[in-house]
């Protein structure tokens, strides 16, 4: 989808559809930290940010009380440590529901109980307890006639897939299917619930940055990838990840189950080895994701199923273990200051610039502007459309390299170079750098901005604002 279509459909969406037709954005309120604000302050923060869905990792009484009467829907969790007991004893499950759910519901709007979290990768191997625990908690809800008000699910990690690329080949690990996947999907279906998936394009990017484009991972404009299995085109890694899960379910004949993204996020800081971690990328990922979700629509495989997503996470959590990134997924510091500024509501989308900060490495850190032969605004940039990119010549590399690239682009490359011929609109300024920029950009746009098509032996790089020189302004379609 081009940016122009994107913008058009966005405004169409705003005018034609009611907002409740779109997906939702919730947030994970993790508390592995010793410096977080009080739960009451946190509830105020959520309200001022327009967030009306929150996901917790337990049933902490002070948090559930603070959420009472807030009109914020809550996903609570039964921690992995209790799975064994909940699976072996109906009375344990009954007591747990009584003390942790009934004591707060309905003034605290508990809508789902996550029974366990990423159970298949729990080092204590609690997998065999999962489905029996879900069933016992469900029976306890049935006993209180709350089973139609409160759903039961369990977030799974993408590592439960044996295959996820291409997306259409998605399948669950064979050793999990019979023991737990099939019984769980049966339970979700029969109880009218849905699958919860924790999906992190960041991990896929971090481990494969040499082959995955950052723009593809960050929902920025890119040429996309066609799935060789089903011919569907993907313009974001997250869509491909979610469709891999849908494909895995489909292979087991569970095409009817809904899916909610129970966690996704991008760290604003990481160790040196953690490729891609950083504030600009985190802002781009989360901001573009929010726009993606709130403007409606689903994945290529399930286009009508709006995305429902809980961001990870509300705060940076200073007591998390592991690499630096683990402590830096928050949208907010414990002081309640924003780590970066992104929209979280439909109203906030209008001011969002698409996270266009250039974070792909360029051959020259401060590229020399395209020279102008005395006209207006030589080398200046103009406002650009959402997510557009242009290809620009790097003047620092010298005439010879630019000329080689120019000759290739206008020759074999098939760029449209008619505008830089004598007398045409973009002939002036008559410099090699300006002409090369025109030709390189024409080639790059013609190749749909595919990876590697703005290089010319290192003589070119991608920018996110339209280059303008003289009367000649390069459109994204040049
Ligand atoms: C509660 O939230 C729902 C949707 O989240 C909204 O439609 C409704 O107006 C809210 N009610 C109050 C009293 O704020
Ligand atoms: C879980 O069960 C074990 C064994 O029956 C028991 O010792 C333990 O106290 C139980 N845990 C909880 C939280 O009830
Ligand atoms: C594993 O089980 C032990 C003993 O019950 C407990 O102390 C530990 O926290 C558990 N580890 C995890 C990751 O749940
Ligand atoms: C976990 O437990 C299940 C069933 O008890 C067993 O089949 C599986 O091999 C165990 N997995 C690991 C990683 O220990
Ligand atoms: C239903 O709940 C009541 C009250 O908590 C309890 O006494 C009873 O054992 C429960 N029944 C079942 C089948 O769990
Ligand atoms: C661009 O203009 C500056 C002075 O305005 C000059 O120093 C530089 O050499 C020019 N670069 C090219 C590639 O023409």
Automatic annotation (TrEMBL):
Any Gene Ontology biological process: carbohydrate metabolic process
Sequence segments annotated as region (Disordered): 353-379
Signal peptide span: 1-22
Membrane-spanning ranges: none
Main location: membrane
EC number: 3.2.1.39
Compartments, record wording: Cell membrane
A GO MF label: glucan endo-1,3-beta-D-glucosidase activity
Membrane topology, record value: Lipid-anchor; GPI-anchor
Keywords: Cell membrane, Disulfide bond, Glycoprotein, Glycosidase, GPI-anchor, Hydrolase, Lipoprotein, Membrane, Plant defense, Signal
Keyword field contains Oxidoreductase: no
UniProt record similarity statement: Belongs to the glycosyl hydrolase 17 family.
Name the record gives this protein: glucan endo-1,3-beta-D-glucosidase
């Amino acid at each position: 989808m081009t940016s122009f279509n994107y913008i058009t459909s966005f405004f169409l969406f705003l005018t034609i559809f009611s907002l409740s037709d779109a997906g939702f954005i919730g947030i994970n309120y993790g508390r592995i930290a010793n410096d977080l604000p009080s739960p009451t302050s946190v509830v105020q923060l959520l309200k001022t940010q327009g967030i009306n869905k929150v996901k917790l990792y337990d049933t902490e009484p002070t948090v559930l009380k603070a959420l009472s009467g807030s009109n914020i829907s809550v996903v609570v969790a039964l921690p992995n440590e209790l799975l064994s007991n909940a699976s072996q004893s109906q009375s344990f499950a009954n007591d747990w529901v009584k003390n942790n759910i009934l004591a707060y519901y309905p003034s605290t709007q508990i809508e789902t109980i996550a029974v366990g979290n990423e159970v298949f990768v729990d080092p204590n191997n609690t997998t065999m307890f999962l489905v029996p625990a879900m069933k016992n908690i469900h029976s306890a809800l049935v006993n209180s006639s709350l089973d139609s008000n409160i759903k039961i699910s369990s977030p799974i990690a993408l590592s439960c897939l044996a295959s996820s690329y291409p997306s259409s080949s998605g399948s669950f690990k064979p050793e999990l299917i019979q023991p737990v996947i099939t019984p769980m999907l049966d339970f979700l279906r029969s109880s009218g619930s849905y699958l919860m998936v924790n999906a992190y394009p960041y991990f896929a990017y971090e481990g494969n940055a040499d082959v995955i484009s950052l723009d593809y991972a960050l929902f920025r404009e890119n040429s996309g990838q066609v799935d060789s299995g089903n011919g569907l085109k993907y313009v974001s890694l997250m869509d491909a990840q979610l469709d891999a899960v849908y494909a895995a379910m489909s292979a087991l004949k569970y095409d009817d189950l809904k899916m909610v993204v129970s966690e996704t996020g991008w760290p604003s800081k990481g160790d040196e080895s953690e490729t891609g971690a950083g504030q600009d990328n985190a802002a781009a990922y989360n901001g573009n994701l929010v726009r993606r979700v709130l403007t409606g629509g689903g994945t290529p495989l399930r286009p009508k199923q709006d995305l429902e997503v809980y961001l990870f996470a509300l705060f940076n959590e200073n007591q998390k273990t592991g690499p630096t990134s683990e402590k830096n997924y928050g949208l907010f510091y414990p002081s309640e200051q924003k780590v970066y500024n992104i929209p979280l509501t439909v109203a906030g989308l209008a001011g969002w610039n698409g996270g266009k900060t250039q974070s792909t490495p360029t051959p020259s850190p401060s590229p020399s502007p395209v020279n102008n032969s005395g006209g207006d605004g030589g080398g200046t940039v103009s406002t650009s459309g959402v997510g557009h990119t242009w290809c620009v010549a790097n003047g620092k590399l010298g005439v010879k390299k630019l000329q080689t690239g120019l000759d290739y682009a206008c020759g074999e490359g098939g760029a449209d170079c008619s505008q830089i011929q004598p007398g045409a609109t973009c002939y002036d300024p008559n410099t090699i750098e300006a002409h090369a920029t025109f030709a390189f950009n024409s080639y790059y746009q013609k190749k749909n901005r595919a990876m590697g098509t703005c290089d010319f032996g290192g003589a070119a790089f991608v920018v996110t604002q339209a280059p303008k020189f003289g009367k000649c302004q390069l459109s994204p379609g040049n």
